[in-house]
Amino acid sequence: MAMMRLRREDPRVVGSFRLHRRLGAGGMGVVYLGADKRGQRVALKVIRPELAEDQEFRSRFAREVSAARRIRGGCTARLVAADLDADRPWFATQYVPGPSLHDKVAEEGTLQASEVAAIGAALADGLVAVHEAGVVHRDLKPSNILLSPKGPRIIDFGIAWSTGASTLTHVGTAVGSPGFLAPEQVRGAAVTPATDVFAFGATLAYAATADSPFGQGSSEVMLYRVVHEEPDLSGVPDALAPLVYACLAKDPGDRPSTVQLSERLAEIAAREARGLGAPRREAVPKTAGPRPERPTGRRAEEYAQQHTERRTAGGTASSARHTGRTPVPRPPGQRTPAPRTPAPRTPAGRRPGGPDRRLLRQRLIVFVIVTLLAAACIAVAQGAWPR
Fold first, then answer.
1. How far apart (Å, rounded) are the C-alpha atoms in residues 261 and 278?
2. Which residue of 172, 324, 339, 376 shows the fewest CB atoms closer than 10 Å?
3. Is 84 or 302 the better-scoring residue by pLDDT?
4. For this UniProt entry, which segments traverse the membrane (predicted)?
């Protein structure tokens, strides 16, 4: 994680923590690297002064911090301390060393299927704990996932929605990041754990393609695509694409649960790990034209379950054994083209029935003529030729 020196206006001490570096800044406030007297390092966020004067924000902020305290397990950056009554409210979480998923992909390129599945399995398991605590992240995206040596950690959950501070152009229209927020967030409907599942699917697609499954564009364009268009998963590995499709279902009720995601991704990660050693795959350019067809309704989850299972019969099993990846069936209505067998070629590089046949006839004629001339010469030499 990039660190910057403290600026003149930055505080040096907040609560019992001494601040050392800037870790970042956003619409809500500034995040600092700090440490207590025992040397425990924390990421400490100090809220901007204009927000501190908003009593409604303070009350919502207090509820979110309370919810964060209830989360158990190592899936998130643990809340260490907070002061909700300070002139500028702040909270401190355990400092997580390591880059964000966004930075890793930006600097090193797209991840292999095995890596995406392993990170996804750990994240899905973490979301189970988050949702069991009664919290919905509402802004899950690659920059809010830190890749620590002990596994991925979810940060900045459940706070941005209360302030309208987001990457959207117009405050209040929706809260989240275009391309990663769910259709129900765009419509202003209630959020549920399924909302995080949609963002989770978009995050996995980003890890595999270095792009949102809804492409790029203005906020309005992105929000329209999220609600009305199918995602483009042309660069997502075959083993993961069906499951990602299911996560990105428009209807929240059609998406798989976090428990199902954790189990399926763990299976995929174990299977894909057997093929480690292949070079890192590059992001596949998105193709123009109609997007792939995806089953709608509650078939989406069944589609993911059916087509991510290991095949055990026929050519599919043989292919899976050799590639380590489960092929994704073509959408209904599309016929799989039969493999083309190239026509055999002669040593000269020409196909039978072409110029080689004519050349053979020419050589045969020349051979016959030469043979006849040779016989005539022999006959003359022996005096047998009529005079």
1. 25
2. 339
3. 84
4. 364-385
Same domain? 28 vs 155:
no
- H or E stretch at 190: none
168 confidence band (pLDDT: 50, 70, 90)? very low
Q: 148 near 98, Cβ under 8 Å?
A: yes
Indicate the angle between helix axes 113-132 and 258-273, nearest 10 degrees.
Answer: 160
Average pLDDT over residues 175-185: 85
Domain count, the chain: 2
Q: Is position 373 within any domain?
A: no
138, containing H or E segment:
none
Q: Nearest-CA neighbor of 240 among 120, 157, 333, 133?
A: 120
Beta-bridge partners for 35: 18, 41
Neighbours of 320 (CB within 10 A): 18
**233 and 210 housed in the same domain:** yes
Lowest mean pLDDT among 215-229, 240-254, 341-355: 341-355
Are 166 and 250 in the same domain? Answer: yes
Closest CA to 242 of 261, 229, 222, 216: 261
pTM summary value: 0.66
* 208 lies in some domain: yes
Residues assigned a catalytic role:
139
Q: Which of 222, 226, 218, 220 is nearest to 201 (CA)?
A: 226
* Residue pair 111/103 in contact by the 8 Å Cβ criterion: no
Shared domain check, 106 and 87:
no
Residue 95 and residue 33 in contact, taking contact as beta carbons nearer than 8 Å: yes
| Separation between Cα atoms, residue 60 and residue 190, nearest integer Å | 16
Structure token pair of residue 259 = 């428990």
Distance (Å, rounded) from C-alpha 66 to C-alpha 60? 10
Residue 116, C-beta contacts closer than 8 angstroms, at least 6 positions apart: 204, 207, 208, 237, 240
- Looking only at the bridges linking them, the beta strands covering 79-83 and 145-148 are unpaired
CA distance 255 to 204: 15
Query: Is 104 assigned a ligand-binding role in the annotation?
Result: no
